[in-house]
Amino acid sequence: MNTLVRENRNASQQRSEQFVTPPASVIEDNDAYLLNVEMPGVNKEGLEISVENNELRIIGRRSLPEINGTFFHRESRTENFRRVFELDPSIDTSKISAHIEQGILTLRLPKAEQVKPRKITVS
Amino acid sequence: MSIIRYQPPETVAWSGLNRLSNLRDELDTLFEMPFWSNFGGQSQLFSGWSPALDLYQNNDNVVVRVELPGMRKEDIEISLQDGMLTISGERKSETAEGDKAERTERYVGKFRRSISLPTQVDASKVTATYLDGILTVTLPKAEDAKPKQIQVNVA
What we know:
The complex is a heterodimer.
Chain A: E1 5-7, E2 19-20, E3 24-28, E4 32-38, E5 42-52, E6 55-62, E7 70-73, E8 80-87, E9 97-101, E10 104-110
Parallel strand pairs in A: 2-8
Antiparallel strand pairs in A: 1-8, 3-4, 4-10, 5-6, 6-8, 9-10
Chain B: H1 23-32, H2 44-47, E1 53-57, E2 61-67, E3 76-81, E4 84-91, E5 100-104, E6 109-116, E7 127-131, E8 134-140
């Protein structure tokens, strides 16, 4: 058993800014892993995604328009989002692509050629 | 073969006094965890998806903001009845046939939130926007519910 996208929790030990961990899901298809992360209130400008030493680090900063008024009831958090994953070497990190739509960040993590399933013809 | 292995949060297994110094760290991370992952998703059976809802008010409006990432506009329903605002909808699954879900923390399905409004509103002037996964409903206060400046002349 090997691990392709593993959460790296140690990376969040040293910090000064407070973050919340957004819920995520990982879907696998033949060519890639799709990582969906829920970041309501974050747009393209607020995203900071980096890969270093197979560590995928995602930071999403909320950019909600201020509402002029006082809180009557509050459930949302104000902290920004952060999540760190450890990527297996079989992911082609040079081809990772990302987009965000209605608060869902989608990262496409393509598998390297050698791990894709392929048919072998017997001659 | 499972390629992406789910790592259960370490926060669940406190190993006693020898790690007491870490307790504070662990508590910190516990509150950082997405809610469902601590319970393996089972608690969804009881409470479903309950998106975070904020309610503000100022002199002219009551504003309700709900975190609804990944919805389609058409799948959000807003209704107002007897001073009670109800927001409901359904989030569809994104998994296509043949795909393998390796890790699922995101809730898929129906939700419904109701909140009773603090003042009378003008139901005909309610507006809503959906941007970056945040639904904002603006409810203008009814004229007689607005705070009024009263001039007092001191003789």
